[in-house]
Amino acid sequence: MKKLLNTILLLTLLLSPHLAHASSYDFHIEQNMEIQYTKNSDYTTVQIEYIREVQGSEYFFPASGSKTFVIPDILTQTDSQISTERKFKVDSITVQDSNSKTLTYSTEEKEGEGIHVIVPNYKQTTRSSPYKIYLTYKTHDFVQVVQQNVTLQAPSLPKDTQFSMLHEDTNTKTNLEYNLNIVVDREIGELAKIWPTTYTLDSGDGQDAYFFSAESRLGKNPYLQFGTPQIYRFELEYETPQTDTFLPENYPDIFKEFSKNIFEISLPRYFDENMQTVKIESMSPTPSKIGRDSEGNIIATFEVDAHEQSTISVIGYIWVEQNALSDPKLIPNIELSLYENAISEDSTLSGYLTSTKYWQVNDTYIQQEAKALKSDMVNILDLIRADYTYINEKLDYDQTKADSGNDRIGAKEALEGGGSVCMEYSDAMITILRAQGIPARAALGYANLKDIAHTQDSQVRHQWVQVWLPDYGWLSIDPTLESENMDIGQNVGRILWETFSGNDLSNTKVYSADSLSDIDDLGFNISIYAVTENDIEDIDSLQSYEEISPVEDLSEENVGDMLNKFFKASSIGRSTAIVAPIILVLIVLVICISSVRWVVRRIRKR
């Protein structure tokens, strides 16, 4: 007599924690996900194939009960975004059997979970008649399109996912299988990044299908990024306040020249690793100077009248590019002994090994941790990976800190359990690297940039790490992302604005004789978003920094700059501007009176 196994028993089997190691099984459950993307779309089509098979003739599943599919939400979205996306998904749902016959279903939305799609069992499942359901829906959740670049991401599997189970009550065995295919239009562009790196590629009919096994997805979100070049437009604006209310407005312009606020503003720089270049559309007012410091940062100097409000505006474009996956930019993994010899022979790198207020390189605890990580390491990249893993194990990202004032606490406090965001991840890794004799600096810029349609999204500066490697240059590393997929080199994918090797978080500075000491007190706005060349009205009119003005060397401040700041943006300079005409008049009067008296004496003598 056949044994009746209902849906409840099946669910019990699926949730059973007992693992079976036998090669034979009584049931086979297979759930295959296919994510399809077509060029120029902003959504993907997802199809989930559910297969249930009975291997033995003594078992069967009746045509009763139901199968529930869960279409998850993106938990980082707002309630409004989740609601909008749920409607888009629900409106696109179709459910069919193996003969393409439409099946009835119902949906239920659950907070914190997503959409439950309940499909009644439409037939009996036996050894000779397997059970199949095809659920199809559309979603924006798995794709991000930023002009030339397309990123596709798929769900991971829990790390404790089981692939075979034993149900002790019935002594039956179940084999479980989960597969993933990401299918893309071959015209989408060159593949630049893929994770996990274990996959199978099948090409045909104008499409590429990337197959990921269940084992490769355990705790890992597969993703692919297509497109190697990208262009970003940036619009920077400073609303500079009136700070000098003492100097009369009717003073001659020559005296107003001694009442200035001087802004040294950091602008996006050039960078070899991601082939980053910059062209300027407009600068207002014209900078008095453009310079490059010892690290390659671009600093533009603007002099604005302190006795009136004004605006500093810079508009331009940033070009970045990465190598295709088929032609990667290689990172040299040289032996530590050879690396240390190369570093010791370059005196310019000593400044990237020192201890600072937030990078406590000489601290006993830091030294011990750095030494332990370095022991038994042979090659430089292996040590960097060990440091990366260590930082992610020691630090926990604190979203509350990110949403608040976000005070900088430094490397040691972060490693001892202090609240951490990208700043602390970066500070901690730089400190460990320097303690190991590896030159490191902080990089500041912008991440997760979108296109013009999403410019209302807030853009927050991001901080990561750069390490010096001979025959490569500065290697970017972003330890904030807690993932086995270490963000390193071109994979970091950020807009680099500036770098620094000391306590300051920016190279932008303000010089004023008045109470204007912090750039954050100004009306500062910056917008960065992706564009195409077609969005640039007159690309031939764009200018490089060198074409706007000779780029000066700022590695050492010259005497002329010091005197200029002293007389134009200091209290003494301001006082000189006010007192100078009075003193000049007095001197002229004294000279005139003396001259008259001398003439009178001469006349009397005659």
Determine the number of helices (DSSP H or I, runs of at least 4 residues): 12
Largest sheet descriptor: 8 strands, mixed
For the record, give the distance between the C-alpha atoms at the N and C termini, rounded to a whole number: 152 Å
**Gross morphology:** elongated
User: Could you say what the CATH topology of the largest domain is called?
Assistant: Immunoglobulin-like
Overall tally of structural domains: 3
CATH architecture of the largest domain: Sandwich
Alpha-beta content class: alpha+beta
Q: Give the fraction of residues assigned to helices.
A: 10-25%
Question: What do these coordinates show?
Answer:
With 606 residues, this protein is of the alpha+beta class. The protein folds into 3 domains: 3-227, Sandwich (Immunoglobulin-like); 231-322 and 505-573, Sandwich (Immunoglobulin-like); 336-492, C8orf32 fold (Roll). Strands 2, 3, 6, 9, 12, 13, 15 and 16 form an 8-stranded mixed beta sheet that branches. The N and C termini lie far apart (152 Å). The model is unreliable at 1-23 (pLDDT under 50).
Any key phrases for this structure?
22% helix, alpha+beta, C8orf32 fold, five-stranded mixed beta sheet, disordered N terminus, 12 helices, eight-stranded mixed beta sheet, Immunoglobulin-like, 606 residues
Short recap of the structure:
By secondary structure, the protein is α+β, with helices and mostly antiparallel strands.
